DUF1343 domain-containing protein (Gramella jeungdoensis), 394 residues
Amino acid sequence: MKVFTGLDVLIHDKEIQKTFKGNVGLLCHNASVDSTFSHAILKFKEIFNSRFIKVFGPQHGFSTDVQDNMIETDHSIHPYFNIPIYSLYSETRIPTDKMLEGIDHLFVDLQDVGCRVYTYIYTLTLLLDKCSNKNIEVIVLDRPNPINGIDIEGNILEKQFESFVGLHPIPMRHGMTIGEVALMHQSLWATEKTNLKVIKMLNWKREMFFENTKLPWILPSPNLARAESACTFPATVLFEGTNLSEGRGTSQPLEIVGHPKIEPYSLYIKHFEQSIKDSKLKGFKIRPITFLPTFQKHCNIVCGGFQIHITNKKTFRPWRVGQFIIRELYHALGNDFQWKNPPYEYNHTQLPIDILNGTDKLRHWVENNEKIEILDSFEDLKEFKLQLNEIKLY
């Protein structure tokens, strides 16, 4: 059965539309489309007309065309609709009073990918905090968690490692929709409550992966062109904290990893093939490859590496697979493997890998070549699952 997003519901429900009587703003990006590929900004202009007065964009920009972290986007005027577009990944990640001036209802329509380090959920929660003492209603138009809403993985973020890729104590693969993140924020993390409404999806089930929704996949960030990439993302994003390429500058970013010093076939045959069997990790295969990044790490240098192929999404555990591959490559490459140095996402002191992991303990697990079974001790998720049960919408 086809899923209808919160945007679809708003578009087709005239009674809901009538409840919004004031001026409207919209936080959105490239993936903010309805089930017929029409962008939210077009639909908002049709529904609210002159009351639609401002647009906001997250990291990567309103048009989702800006690469990488700490590359900020400018404010602008929409060339067709002639309304301001304010960047919330600019000199500020929190909307200013001036940006919010005149808005009565601020809608949020962002496609998240179900992973703690994806920054859109923090753009949302910072916006909620800012609006808590203003007479502004925040309405989240809910969208699917593309890697399902059942499987939860990884360690809970430790407070001393908070950053813009991890502001709240949630696991790496959190199992929430963006609407549920908003509700958890209001329930657990907000110091003051915001006037919040979530417009739920229709027909979405927690066990669904994105392809089950029959919705169009529009890249939510420049390097997630395929829904499949969202499934490998909790594994491969960890390589942002290393000197290995995570495939940026290729046609398969965040599905492949590599380094100029890797000879992929010998490493696979002599090492990886058996170590994967010993790990008892399931649901994936790695394939030896060579690739040539055209930008970012190792630009124009041939890299050897591996592509992660998911063979069973239900048994594939990306966080665990990512930790495993980093451990293996750390010891196989020796001095050629390096942890990336700061800064990373505006943190100028801590190692990026620790920020991504939300702890330094996983780095020590890698460096000490500890057993895969020890990862179980990092996944203390009982309390989080209870918290999630309290705010689940589906």
Observations:
- The beta strands are 24-28, 52-57, 76-77, 84-87, 105-109, 137-141, 196-199, 256-259, 284-291, 303-310.
- The longest strand covers residues 284-291.
- The chain has a mean pLDDT of 96.
- The first helix runs from residue 6 to 12.
